[in-house]
Known about the structure:
Layout: H1 3-7, H2 11-43, E1 52-57, E2 66-76, E3 79-91, E4 97-100, E5 112-113, E6 123-125, E7 130-132, E8 150-156, E9 159-166
Antiparallel strand pairs: 1-9, 2-3, 3-4, 5-6, 6-7, 8-9
Amino acid sequence: MSEDKKNQVSRRQFLNYTLTGVGGFMAAGMLAPMVRFAIDPVLQPEAEGEFVSADIAVEDITTEPQKVTFKVDQVDAWYESTVEKTAFVYKKEDGSIVAFDPTCTHLGCVVGWNTNDDYPQHFYCPCHDGLYTKDGVNVPNTPPTAPLSVYEHKIQNGILYLGKAIPREEA
């Protein structure tokens, strides 16, 4: 056999190479969007430390917990929306400000301050008779498993700004 015939590619080999290359290219084209869909949200930077105005002046905050609502821009993967959240805000006797997330730690219902006549001066969850004291600590022998979460907060130009809610350890 001559040297030229050894280096030549047969018709069958050429078709195998071509079809394998085209198939690989098509598979990569189909997998790339799926891989990006799965990985892209993980690679997005987290928006930590963002504070939003609670629209309440520090001088209007009393020693009695009061409910305030504020709006947060929320991003879930590619869906952006504005969500309304609530907090209970009050001043302690020493003048420091406390802001609680009103979500019950038992089943996620919303608690209210002083809403049950049987339990005055308590946060009360109507779903399963959950109770919290004024400082957000769960009352023993009631359904909640942990104290209410506390919002990070700061004061800027006399206005209260709230950050993310930080869960507290079991009491």
